[in-house]
Write a structure and sequence with these properties.
Blueprint: E1 4-8, H1 12-28, E2 43-47, H2 49-57, H3 63-70, H4 74-77, H5 89-102, H6 106-122, H7 129-137, E3 152-159, E4 165-168, H8 180-187, E5 197-199, E6 202-206, E7 223-227, H9 240-247, E8 251-254, H10 258-264, H11 274-296
Parallel strand pairs: 1-2, 1-7, 2-3, 7-8
Antiparallel strand pairs: 3-4, 3-6, 5-6
Helix pairs in contact: 1-2, 1-3, 1-11, 2-8, 5-6, 7-8, 10-11
Amino acid sequence: MTRRALVLGGGGITGIAWETGFLAGLAESGLDLTAGGPTPPDLVVGTSAGSIVGSQVTSEVPVAELYRRQLLPPAQLGDGGVPLAAIGPRVLLTFAASLLRARGDVERFGRLLGERAVAAARAGRVPSVEERYAQVRQRLVTQAWPGEGAPQLVVTGVDAATGRRVAFSGPGGELPGVGLEDAVNASCAVPCVYPPIPIAGRTYLDGGVHSGSNADLAAGCDVVLALCPADRAVGPLRSASQALAGLGVPHLVVTPDDASRAAIGRNVLDPQARPPSARAGFEQGVAWAERVGDLWRGGPPPT
């Protein structure tokens, strides 16, 4: 049996839209990789934005409906009245300073960002946990982990105190008591932009603090498709391309093309950019369908 993995990386609101559009474009071309399709993945790894898309594509909601939702204007998807968030200069400076102090240690980087994120939340510089849950709930189509027969879903987070990556995966996972809604909120908790998420006495940050994709969690699979709105290697953070090359398995890493980058724009947290990002992702999915199909069906790995 060929074991297939779908890796969904982080990338904000526009990343959710682009990944969903890409998968819808594949389905339109006869390659539905969601739980309801003829060749679903065995494993889905979701980080930050990818955790939301992962929870959606492992549900029973058709990909066409998921795509339709991404085309809605912000007021109809619940975030029209939410203050515009951005990963601005202050946040970028915090990340850069933490990278320098981490000296190549990814867990130390997580601890340093964890300190800053907790301090920002205590000072009231980010939304409350309750406000954040309300925002994320608008984007979820289910609050249940995938059931029997569905793809396994892994959602990544980072422990704010230890800097260690955590892989949430429902009842059979590393932390079996954590619900899907909690796991997704933790995975989307961008430090100093959104609040760290308390779960069972611990506090968690965005899974992207460890890696933008956490593609190494696809180890043991025979074929891997990674959709990465931003596939960068920064300091100790490895890119999906690096991680999958290290696994030595046939894989494709897909990033936004020129049209998609133009649609996404400069602020990946801007809900106004969601519909054009989804449409651009759809067109890119159609364009990539043949290459992805060759990989997914066990043909020769792309060069």
